């Protein structure tokens, strides 16, 4: 009968509805809900653990950048005295800690003279560039290209100092000191560099004595700092290797500072 109706023109064909399966729909709805819930929980757990992992590694290796700029005038004066006259420091070289959230945290620079900061290194680096520009102007070699080379030279020297400290830490068993701590301690070299370049500008040949003094002070400062602060975070301790690395860091300041204080416009000496 249906075939006859379908074969006649002008007569609409009745729609065909497949038989419904109540059990299939129920299983499909329950299965899709279970899959969605499982994937949602897994995704939340995965991304939550990933974000915690990233945050923990960022805090471990980079710390909080704002921490390194919590300084005042008194801290800057005392820190410069510590860098230029480290052998006159009669206090301890260990950083001050305080309990925060169930774990120990370091006091900011404004409350601890032994804490690293980035304010002094950045200001010292900028002053170093200004003084090298004046020195180049006195010798008649000032040009944008020469200043660009001095900037690159300073950044390379800073990078070499950071690598020197990081390699010494890794050789002791993989110290996990934050990267910005190492960058800050390495950047204090430019405070002495400013004094050395200023000596070249004003005292001519007597600047070699200032460079020698700067190298000695920076060597003592880094040795004291590395011994009490950075090496405390190394996983292992080897007395003989420890002493050799400290001596290597101290003696490495002589060629590094002599190279960076050269403002003749040449890449080398």
From TrEMBL:
Coiled coil: none
Residue spans crossing the bilayer: 203-223, 244-261
Keywords: Endoplasmic reticulum, Golgi apparatus, Membrane, Protein transport, Transmembrane, Transmembrane helix, Transport
Topology in the lipid bilayer: Multi-pass membrane protein
Localisation: Endoplasmic reticulum membrane; Golgi apparatus membrane
Organism domain of life: Eukaryota
GO process terms (BP): endoplasmic reticulum to Golgi vesicle-mediated transport; protein transport
Cellular component per GO, a single term: COPII-coated ER to Golgi transport vesicle
InterPro entries recorded: Yif1_fam
Family the entry assigns: Belongs to the YIF1 family.
Protein name: Uncharacterized protein
Organism the protein comes from: Rhamnella rubrinervis
